[in-house]
């Protein structure tokens, strides 16, 4: 039986490089009151950790500390994508091979030519999660979801451009990886990400003894505080917003995000639980030429594949041109200057992480306060923190 890796314990002291004091000040100012919740922010520059701070409340009775982790929604897509790249550089998967070469059932309903590259760039036409499986808790049943995706017919709009797979993306990656390796996806994540990086907080199924570390999410995720079922039904019949409702608003999702059972399921498109420390370390390797602490995590040629823009077409779900990379989107900063080679993934509610190979910066932010006073779906916290960080490293 292989030895269990000895992971370093969480820091009990914060770290602030003097250059990053303005960024730390901006972060701390976000968590002055309990109704702001809590969060953590970690930054690396050229593989060196320069910031590791946290503040606020994990729940009403508990302060956020160095051990706190948070459900980070679509931030987990970036981790799932990185797993795929680790496998691709060893030839276990091929970007241009059909998904059905690894997962034969996927070929049903005209999907036999859809490739791994299509999957990583949201071009499989399987964005629809609304109505995919029966029941308000049906999404917790991994096998049922996988069978439904394998049988589903792709949306013809995939031929014209990407359509953000807001929830289904994770299952598509997980099952393809599992079929290619012959291992459960969570085991592959541990072997390909957590163990090489020496950080264990990359969870889609949270170990029972670690669940007390999870921060409590608030407020409700309902857009504008409106009833979820009513709002999603209305949006599903509105032309410009129909794709978003189909991709991101399954019935009962507002309740599901708070159901403790989500931490026992494998739903890598949205249920990843991470620390800012773990995310930052992964992206630090990407920003530093694939190397962290002298150990190669990814090859240079793999990084080139990861960062190359795959499509500039309009995304038919989001309604914008997002310049998808292979499993990542470009960082979005509150600045006139945007990273030209950056890649990462943000999540609904505010959490996210990214790497900028041009400056060597990696930044990760996790929080339990979903959005702002206007909407829980997202805000500019990470965009502003990222802009501040970029200004520091460029000065």
Based on Cα principal axes, name the global outline: globular
Tally of alpha and pi helices: 12
Summarize the amount of helix as a percent range: 25-40%
Tell me about the largest β-sheet.
7 strands, antiparallel
CATH topology descriptor: Beta-lactamase
Write down the overall mean pLDDT. Answer: 92
Unreliable parts: 1-10
Structural class: alpha+beta
Number of strands: 12
Overview of this protein structure:
The chain has 395 residues and is α+β, with helices and mostly antiparallel strands. The chain has a single domain, classed as Beta-lactamase, CATH 3.40.710.10. It is built from twelve helices and twelve strands. The protein has helices at 21-29, 75-88, 116-120, 142-151, 168-181, 185-197, 228-235, 242-248, 253-256, 276-287, 300-307, 381-394, and strands at 15-16, 38-45, 48-59, 62-63, 70-71, 202-203, 273-274, 291-292, 295-296, 343-346, 352-356, 361-367. The strands form three sheets. Strands 1, 2, 3, 4, 10, 11 and 12 form a seven-stranded antiparallel sheet that branches. A hairpin with a 4-residue loop joins strand 11 and strand 12. The longest helix has 14 residues, at 75-88. The radius of gyration is 20 Å and the shape is globular. The termini are far apart. The model is unreliable at 1-10 (pLDDT under 50).
């Amino acid at each position: 039986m292989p030895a269990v890796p000895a992971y370093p314990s969480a820091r009990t002291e914060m770290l602030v490089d003097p250059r990053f004091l303005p960024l730390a000040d901006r972060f701390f100012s976000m968590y002055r009151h309990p109704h702001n919740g809590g969060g953590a922010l970690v930054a690396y520059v050229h593989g060196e950790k320069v910031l590791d701070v946290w503040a606020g409340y994990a729940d009403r009775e508990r302060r956020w500390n160095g051990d706190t982790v948070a459900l980070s929604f679509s931030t987990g897509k970036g981790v799932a994508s990185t797993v795929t790249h680790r496998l691709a550089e060893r030839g276990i998967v091929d970007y241009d091979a059909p998904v059905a070469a690894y997962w034969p059932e996927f070929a049903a309903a005209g999907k036999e030519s859809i490739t791994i590259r299509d999957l990583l760039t949201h071009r499989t036409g399987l964005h629809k999660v609304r109505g995919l499986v029966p029941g308000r808790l049906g999404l917790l049943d991994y096998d049922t979801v996988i069978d439904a995706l394998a049988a589903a017919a792709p949306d013809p709009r995939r031929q014209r451009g990407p359509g953000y797979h807001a929830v289904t993306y994770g299952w598509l990656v997980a099952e393809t990886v599992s079929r290619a390796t012959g291992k459960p996806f969570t085991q592959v994540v541990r072997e390909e990400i957590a163990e090489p990086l020496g950080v264990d907080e990359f969870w889609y199924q949270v170990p029972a003894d670690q669940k007390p570390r999870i921060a409590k999410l608030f407020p409700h995720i309902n857009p504008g505080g409106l009833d979820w079922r009513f709002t999603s039904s209305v949006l599903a019949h509105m032309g410009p917003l129909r794709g978003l409702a189909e991709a991101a608003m399954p019935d009962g999702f507002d309740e599901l995000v708070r159901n403790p059972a989500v931490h026992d399921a494998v739903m890598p498109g949205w249920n990843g639980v991470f620390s800012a420390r773990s995310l930052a370390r992964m992206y630090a390797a990407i920003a530093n030429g694939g190397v962290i602490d002298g150990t190669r995590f990814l090859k240079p040629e793999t990084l080139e594949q990861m960062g190359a823009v795959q499509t500039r077409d309009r995304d038919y779900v989001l309604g914008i041109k997002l310049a998808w990379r292979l499993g990542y989107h470009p960082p979005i900063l509150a600045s006139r200057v945007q990273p030209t080679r950056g890649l990462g993934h943000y999540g609904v509610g505010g959490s996210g992480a990214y790497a900028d190979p041009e400056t060597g910066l990696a930044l990760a932010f996790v929080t339990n306060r979903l959005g702002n006073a206007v909407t829980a779906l997202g805000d500019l916290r990470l965009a502003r923190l990222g802009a501040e960080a970029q200004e520091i490293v460029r000065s």
